[in-house]
Amino acid sequence: MQTELTASPGNRADRVVALDALRGLAVVGIVPMNVIAFSMPPAAYFNPRVFGGDGPLEIALWAVGFVLIEDKFRALFAMMFGAGVAILLGKASEHPLRGHYARMLVLFVIAMLHAVLLANNDVLRVYAVAGLLLPFAVNWQTRTLLWSAGVIVLAQLAISGWYAWDWLMAVGDPAAQEVAESLYGENPSALADAAARADAGLAERVAQRLGTLPQQSGFVVASLPSALAAMLVGMALWKNGLFAGEWSGERIMRLARRCVVIAIPVLIGLAAWSITSGFDPIITTANALVWSAPFDLLLGIGWAALGMAAFARGGTLAERLAATGRLALTNYLATSLVFAAVFMGLGLDLFAQVTRGQALLLGLIPIALMFSWSPLWLARFRQGPAEWFWRSVAQGHILPFKR
Prior knowledge:
single chain; 18 helices; globular
């Protein structure tokens, strides 16, 4: 999320606009996936055949999201978090670890409220838990951080890949296909259940979400390895100077090219496999959750490099994204409020009423609001309201708010 301090080349003492803009890009990049999660039944996040259309346009939109966006920007968001922790723990303070763990505790409470009230796919819970481990790595060398991230990714791939391979061997088996279709394919009862949850009142929604806390705990545990790996990469890219704005343009583009050349062909191949299978639920889900994971992180690094190269030049877009990034936590939570107002029964009740293309167009609403309000807010206030609340509670006293 937003940090008190970012860096400039050389002395690392001032804000780097490019790093703030990259954080803003990460927040914006999560919107296209979250709008699908809010507007359609859960399985549609992976499989366009479930809902939202499987015509040429919808398949193309799904493919672009799968190859370029889905989990790439979530990885970038986690990298920003890891870099922010490295920055804060590197500052001189009397009790750095006490302050860090207080921030993680408060963040976890905020995340649980967000998950129960608005978005049960909240990633902040994962970040708060993974953040408990980051102080152990803060003094590691760049090489150690990167190797550790690689080991985590490969270990996760080995374990999940073992299960996924066993599942793939069942493709065509009627019993296995029936189970997979009920979980990740077209399932009228699942759609009806999702629609009922979207129409629920606030009290009913809270009761439903509290009743699924064990499943949500499983989501947090399953998401920890990939989030932790991305955070370690973020710490490494801070330490080696990329996120501090210290790399040359040539070096940055060399890293970006390597990531893109390795990741994009594999991701295109996985997307083609899902499409040619007719979006078989077993194949499509294995591709989305397992086989794409290492390449999602790799392309996330590529996006980070391209962003730092582009935003170093400044300009209006970089400034707008930088303001958005400085209010990252506030904007992330506000996006859920906007989507709740659009898709839930408490608002316009458009859940399961739009195609994938229409949902993505509606996702432009919170993006436009971020770009509009963030610079106006920062002209008068030191930080976003959520950031101010987070830090004030963590530090145990009210921090200055107005400029």
